[in-house]
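Give me structure tokens for this 196-residue protein.
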Amino acid sequence: STLRTALFRVFDRKGFQVVTASRIEEAKLLSPQEQTLDLAIIDMNLPDGNGLNLLTELKAMHPTCEVIILTGHGSIETAVQATQRGAFHFMTKPFNVEELISISQRALTQKKLQQENSQLRTELNRKYHFDQIVGQSPEIRHVLDLVTRVADSDSTVLVMGESGTGKELIAKSIHYNSPRASNPFIAINCGAIPGE
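Here you go.
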């Protein structure tokens, strides 16, 4: 279509690597799972189906792909459905092309931040995994056994020991091996807090 060609030219000039498709089946062929798809701009009305169906299929193939839905007759219900299926944004035609580019760049920035966050969490989980704590003594084995047991619980845990014995390492191991690992680990220096 004229719109598809125009958007291809605009995004191509902005330095994006762009592929276009006129229908759902063509889009699925052009975005195989072994290739990374960062962003999809999908029209609601396609010759062989509904744009929301393509959104769902692309998200299944490329879970981290951001999606912007375009429609000629937007409704709150359709916008809600698009959001529930994982759309980043929903735009009603006619729209401002510069606004679409701005939203696309925002979507890609968010995707990049999410990937960096995921990589950092993976690294933290690896760093504080039990096999990173060195020691074979019965005492260390006992501590690690306790860490394994308390990590899954909602109990408050007090880790005691002399300076330099690895209390914070144990605390982080409990956190990053617990159901709360996706939440931040917040360390507070109790020595800086007045006793009263």
